[in-house]
Specification:
alpha/beta; 5-stranded parallel sheet; 13 helices; 18 strands; 32% helix; globular; binds zinc ion
């Protein structure tokens, strides 16, 4: 293809993208076709690339992957020999939480929402085509993205986190009285609830308002002032109430916790997604294996930050708890690996100027962990694509999964057209994802959101995302 033909094709691709973004899909519309030629495909699971193939996208799904596809009506994009991978999935985001959870916040919910929207667009254009927002008021943002009103990744959202008085979601100040509504409750990021009846009511409120799953603070945390790490609340009855409601809707519970006791209590109640766990030992990890449950790993926010640089708003209490967690990290990672616990990546990013660290987290298993704990690039990429895709498909049913109609996290015929094109192969060296210019194209749901495959002068050129450039003081 000469340069002119290529540019015209690219322009058409941009037009297709814009048109399909504006017009809602109609069953009678003839689906648009985009043919991406000349790429090496990594399907999300294989050890090798499929070299020099074409990928035909029809509407919002992948129709065909083969050499020399003929599609005369398709708009053609030249992948220029790059590597196509599934879009990245980040399983632990907090778009509406910001730094200083203990201190309250000077912004109202509207400004929080505006920033969450910017974060969503930034993450999408950084390569995250799906995120799981796990504690926070993103129920409306998810709906707006689904309806193509705002740009962003596909979102699975928990709504406000559930936790007891004195737990990890209770961010009231020392002088607030019993039952006081703290800032994070007022903007809808958390519930502070006690007793089975309140747990049932809050969990049902979340699901009624569109939560895809429930997030429970099942033990103490680091970034909060009043909850010891080994806190035993919530009670087994409260945990069971949350699991009961999730099941009523065909979904599951994910927990925040660090310790064996919290993991075992949650496992007994029927929890499926175990976040953090850096103080967990063989005692609970072998039970996770028996239950075939999943571990949500935070190699950057959980390991690197807790064992080194603490955010500047951390109090002495938080730093002390961070150091305690750090002592368990190496053993927890080793034991999770020993038992081959199914694992996916979640960055646990909070803070308005912290979004770019989601990519740092996605590469961290090969770069930031001590040498004997490192994962390979292939394993690391699977933890951000096919493995979370499998979890999301298996743990929620068609009654509570907006994206169940096709596969996520894989490049396969019939899967959602959520694909990235990289300069170089991230399964050989995942650290290349940290260089913004290496991500050449981002397609989500068949639409192009970033495109460096054409001349920067060309109108279909879609620039790279800019970091927020703001650092908000508390
Ligand atoms: Zn978190």
């Amino acid at each position: 293809m000469n340069k002119r033909t290529f540019l015209v094709s690219a322009l058409l691709a941009a037009t297709v993208a814009v048109t399909s973004a504006m017009a809602p899909a109609n069953a009678e519309d003839k689906p648009t076709q985009v043919l991406i030629v000349n790429v090496d495909v990594w399907d999300g699971t294989s050890e090798e690339l499929k070299k020099g193939v074409d990928v035909l996208v029809e509407g919002n799904k992948i129709k065909k992957i083969a050499r020399g596809i003929k599609a005369p009506n398709a708009t053609t994009i030249n992948g220029q020999g790059g590597t196509m991978t599934p879009g990245l999935i980040d399983m632990h985001q907090h778009l509406t939480l910001n730094g200083g959870t203990a201190a309250g916040n000077k912004w109202d919910a509207y400004v929080q929402g505006a920033h969450a929207s910017r974060a969503a667009e930034y993450l999408l254009r950084s390569g995250f085509t799906t995120i799981r927002d796990i504690a926070g008021m993103t129920l409306g943002l998810k709906k707006a993205i689904n309806e193509d009103i705002l740009p962003g990744p596909r979102m699975y959202v928990s709504g406000p986190a559930l936790g007891p008085t004195g737990g990890h979601s209770d961010w009231a100040t020392r002088v607030d009285g019993v039952g006081h509504q703290n800032y994070q409750q007022k903007v809808g990021n958390t519930h502070v609830i006690d007793g089975r009846a309140e747990w049932l009511k809050a969990a049902r409120w979340n699901m009624r308002n569109g939560a895809d799953f429930l997030k429970v603070m099942a033990g103490g945390g680091v970034a909060s002032e009043f909850d010891p790490l080994h806190l035993q609340s919530p009670s087994p009855e409260e945990m069971e109430a949350a699991v009961q409601v999730a099941k009523e809707y065909g979904s599951y519970v994910a927990i925040h916790a660090y310790t064996d006791d919290a993991y075992l209590k949650s496992l007994k109640a029927g929890v499926r997604s175990f976040e953090h766990g850096f103080l967990a030992t063989e005692k609970s990890i072998k039970e996770l294996k028996k239950a075939d449950a999943w571990w949500s790993f935070q190699p950057y926010g959980g390991y690197a930050l807790l064992c080194g640089a603490y955010p500047d708003w951390y109090t002495d209490v938080m730093i002390k708890k961070g150091k305690m967690v750090c002592e368990g990290v190496v053993n927890a990672i080793k034991t999770m690996k020993k038992y081959k616990i199914k694992t996916f990546n979640g960055s646990d990013m909070f803070g308005w100027d912290n979004w770019h660290n989601a990519l740092v987290n996605a590469a961290a298993p090969t770069t930031l962990l001590p040498e004997d704990l490192r994962y390979t690039s292939l394993e690391t990429m699977k933890m951000s694509t096919s493995l979370p895709g499998q979890f999301l498909r298996e743990e929620t049913n068609q009654n509570r999964n907006d994206f169940i109609a096709a596969k996520l996290g894989v490049v396969e015929e019939g899967a959602w057209a959520d694909v990235l094109i990289w300069k170089g192969s991230p399964i050989k060296d995942v650290s290349l994802i940290l260089e913004e210019k290496n991500l050449q194209m981002v397609m989500k749901d068949g639409k192009v959101y970033k495109n460096l495959l054409v001349d920067p002068e060309h109108e279909s050129f879609r620039a790279a995302p800019a970091p927020s450039g703001h650092s908000f003081n508390m």
